[in-house]
Design brief:
By secondary structure, this protein is an alpha/beta fold. The protein is built from twelve helices and eight strands. It starts with a helix and ends in a 10-residue tail after the last helix. Bound molecules: zinc ion.
């Protein structure tokens, strides 16, 4: 009888413990992730040919279809302001394949360098062609360029209210892999037909992605003691067009289930207030700094200095070129 009573007590204690964790972080051990793409239909560090743009978008959409995954893409209309017809065609492909389209401003401006009024105007300006593509469907989500979401708690709050008036919700990021750092040298090597060297950047990128995923998984477990639904930010670029299959396969082998942003944002963790930051940083960092500070952020993997230098060299040469990229 005594043993039975003890067991009941242990069970009750365990339930109370798990209920409190559940209340914060949802079902235990179920890994979930939402995939998001910034800069649909192309990340704008340099100019690519129309043919390359079509190919990159098609490759990404084909890979998502292969894995049966629906994502949210944040549109940067300004980057194709001189070719609205192409912009419309590419955005229509995303919509027709069942993906959501959100807003990423027209001019890809930083909130930290703009007045709120002008910033909100730029958001409205960036929704025109997207809305024509969406028809009756409403845009619901917003991703701030550079993850600049307010330098002070007040400016963060003002942005939140401004977005609310536009019926938009800011979508945080909990995982990112510095894809743009590796994309520029990768694309540069492809345009110079240096396939072997291009491949080495892709390999570095995939290895770095694994390191970052390991780190974010450990960090979120430290912070919440269980899995939280993650939001991965990728950019629309040549490197991701060629790497997405590997990244999604890796996430699957890590045990992730994919879900849309609507579901992920319902999780209580995404309603927690966060302290404002001057620099663009993901939300795991923001939450940790706003709460118990459990993670050693100095150990977060960074791309090598070689990768940074290769990126800087590549964007200077690619900046004004119209590149035609052929990929194996
Ligand atoms: Zn962007």
């Amino acid at each position: 009888m005594l043993i039975m009573k003890k067991l009941v007590n242990i069970f009750t204690l365990a339930c109370a413990y798990f209920t409190s964790i559940h209340a914060i972080a949802g079902p235990l051990y179920q890994k979930k992730v939402s995939i998001t793409f910034d800069d649909v239909p192309i990340h704008g560090e340099f100019t690519l040919s129309e043919q390359s743009l079509r190919k990159i978008n098609k490759q990404l959409l084909d890979t998502l279809e292969k894995h049966n995954i629906k994502v949210t893409g944040f549109v940067n209309e300004g980057h194709l302001k001189n070719n609205p017809k192409l912009l419309k065609t590419l955005l229509s492909d995303w919509k027709m394949r069942g993906h959501q389209l959100g807003n990423h401003t027209f001019s890809h401006i930083s909130y930290h360098q703009s007045e709120l009024k002008l910033y909100l105007e730029d958001i409205k300006k960036g929704a025109v062609i997207t809305q024509q593509v969406l028809g009756q469907q409403k845009q619901r989500y917003f991703r701030p360029p550079y993850l600049h979401a307010g330098e002070t708690n007040e400016s963060q709050h003002l942005l939140h209210n401004g977005l609310k008036k536009l019926n938009l919700e800011l979508v945080p990021v909990t995982m990112e892999n510095a894809d743009y750092i590796y994309d520029a040298p990768y694309t540069k090597k492809l345009t110079s037909n240096k396939i072997k060297e291009a491949k080495s950047y892709k390999e570095q990128y995939l290895a770095f992605t694994e390191q970052r995923l390991d780190f974010y998984e450990r960090a979120s477990l430290n912070m919440f003691e269980t899995s939280i639904p993650h939001i991965l930010m990728l950019h629309v670029n040549q490197l991701n067009a060629d790497s997405l299959d590997d990244i999604l396969t890796s996430l699957k082998s890590r045990g992730y289930q994919f879900q849309t942003i609507d579901k992920t944002l319902q999780h209580p963790i995404y309603t927690q207030p966060t302290q404002a930051f001057k620099f663009g940083i993901h939300w795991l960092y923001r939450w940790d700094k706003s709460r118990a500070n459990k993670v050693s952020w100095a150990t977060e993997p960074e791309p090598s200095s070689d990768a940074f230098s290769a990126h800087n060299r590549a964007i200077t040469t690619l900046k004004k070129e119209t590149s035609h990229v052929s990929v194996d």
